[in-house]
Design brief:
With about 230 residues, the chain is α+β, with helices and mostly antiparallel strands. The chain folds into two domains: about 1-15 and about 210-225; about 20-200, Jelly Rolls, CATH 2.60.120. Helix content is about 20%, strand content about 45%. It is built from two helices and 17 strands. It has helices spanning about 1-20, 205-230, and strands spanning about 20-30, 35, 40, 45, 50-55, 60-65, 70-75, 80-90, 95-105, 115-120, 130, 140-145, 155-160, 175-180, 185, 190, 195-200. Strands 1, 2, 4, 6, 7, 9, 12, 14 and 17 form a nine-stranded mixed sheet that branches. Strands 3-5-8-13-10-11 form a six-stranded antiparallel sheet, with no helix packed on it. It has a two-stranded antiparallel sheet with strand order 15-16. Helix 1 (about 1-20) packs antiparallel against helix 2 (about 205-230).
Amino acid sequence: MLRRVVCAAAVAIGVMASGPVSAATIAGWDLLGAPGTQASTPASTSAPNTTGSALTRGAGLSGNAGANSMNAAGWNQQATDYFEFGFVVAPGYQVDLDGFYVGTRSSATGPGTVGLFTSLDGFTSPVATFNQAPGANFVNSVVDLSALPTITGAFTARIQQIGATAANGGATSGTGTFRVGAYFVGSTFDRDMQFTGTVSAVPEPSSIVLLGLGGLGAALAVARRRRAAR
């Protein structure tokens, strides 16, 4: 009996400490009407207790016309060749990402493969890759990000080229282009380019300890009274 009471108290403490959780679009970027050449696109959507960062291109790229997108030429495998975007989580809160929605398009001599990289590992390894072959076609992708660790503070993502192969199978050309835009299902707009997930309050260690001690003490007292009444 005592073990059951203690276990029940522990479960209750965990529920109380976790705090409320709400599903949300964490940050989104509306590219409808954008010319493609713009230097940046501000976040159009941010979940409560988060602030979306602007979508920008790295210094190694140049703007290129492309309706309803951010577009760029100059993909030469330089460290500065990327699109960058993200969000900042307010102090006292945390984000668990579950997905990223995006539409991408390369010209025939643009990047054949691009990857989604994050600041969580210093942009070292892609968490997803996008195959742009054969070029001139939109690739609509939903990336599962549920395996990423919980995020606090600033989070930055980059989409950058992987390898030197173009979408048409040849070598990439500095004049080849690559763009990002909204996510479509078939030919129907589904949503802006965006991260999805949940925002929750970060449990305070001191509060968890106090809740644990109080709950466990009460559970032990109840168990003792029941044993004494037998």
